[in-house]
Amino acid sequence: MTITELEYFDLLKDKIVAEMQKNYPGIPNSISEWKGQNIVDFQFELQTKINEHISEKWFYTHMKSSGGSLPRIDILNFLSRYIGERNWEEFKYQNNEGLKTEKAKQSRLSVYLIPFFALGMILILYLIFNQFYVQEYKFSFYDNDTKQPIHNILIEVNLIAENESPKSYLCDDKGSFRLRTNKKKIKFVVESPYYYTDTIVRTLNSFNHSERVKLKLDDYAVMIQYFSKSNVKDWLKRRDDLDAVFADNARIFRVMNETVGMEIYNKYEFINKLTLPTGSLKNIEIIDTQYKEGKITYLRFRQNLAAK
Asked: pTM above 0.85?
């Protein structure tokens, strides 16, 4: 491995620093940082030890700069003598192997580091690219039958991502939610007390940031709420309707507002409390319903006492 003359000269500078620090331990570790008194001290060292002299201008031209021209051979010779070598050629000979070894280490280190730097740059560019393409999308929900936006009804959106737990979002009172993402396709589950639960898959369009999603009305849940809020008329007919809606083994839970806990009803207890003149369930709000073979098998609700 070839060593250039300037590389030898840079090493000579380091050796000069080490020699100067024997008498001036506070002097900077790099010649490029020497100035003022440091240069005066170095001139004094040269004068007293080897009876040679350099000007301050020469010092700034050759010693403080890097990558410039090499000094004259006579100056290189006496600088080499200052650090204990006979001349410049002997200095190069004594340090040839050391410089080759150091240069080989640096070369090997570069070979190892280049892939890491390349991977680092790729990672940085990937993160920048991803962040640049993160966009905000608005999803609005509307009634499948009326084609009108769904307002003032609880709508929960559970975003499904691979190898992650679902992330939940609540829509605003205008029936919409916003999502920032750089993905091209998303999947989410929509849940609402008076609409059927639905799984939505959307391929996103970076030029269209507004998406509309239709939900199908849960007629049975709406019917139950309507019965609880209306005056009891033709209650026998309503009992027949409810009997047809619920599975015989349906589980029905009332979430308590006034206390911690809940009440549990079977199908017939619930129908009685909802339809008989003496019934106690009025103005109920559906929380959740589940179906099997077209009938309600699970119902959870609370009673709006303020509306009594």
From this structure: no
